[in-house]
Amino acid sequence: xxIGIQIRFHDDVMIGRRACDSAENMDFARQxxxxxxxxxxxxxxxxxxxxxxxxxxxxxxxKVAWVADMGNGIITDNSFRPRHTLRLHDDETQELRNTIxxxxxxxxxxxxxxxxxxxxxxxxxxxxxxxxxxxxxxSWDPKPRPEAPKCTLDNYTPFxxxxxxxxxx
Length: 169
Hints:
By secondary structure, the chain is of the alpha/beta class. Helices cover 44% and strands 15% of the residues. The protein has one domain. It has a 4-stranded parallel beta sheet, sandwiched between helices. α1 packs parallel to α4 and α3 packs antiparallel against α5. The longest helix is centred in the first third of the chain and has 25 residues. It is globular.
């Protein structure tokens, strides 16, 4: 199985929100990527699972600067509105589903983990990633991919669950 890990952070919870290409913000982004890479290693070692990282942010300078740095990850255009909350709002839920559907449809991953921990820094981000990955590995019942050219979440249960699943800290 290939699990896609979305690491999401946004400029209104980052240091220097008007200067997204600042050294402080780049370091903050690097901490998030480090969390994902730690989880990658854990999943591969203990579960023989390959995890791909997806760094999603609305900080354009950060996105541009990380294109060459991500390596095994993919940077996508951010479809989310900046918020100070970890919870999914109704308008965000559909946008999240569209993002997940696209990534899965084009074969980027079999599962998709959405992790947010902006308010909690590096520790919170790693906790979020770990909680989601543990839940997925314990509860996921893999199904064959539909042969239809356009897949939807309605015929693929894990994503329907993921789109509404939330971890309370």
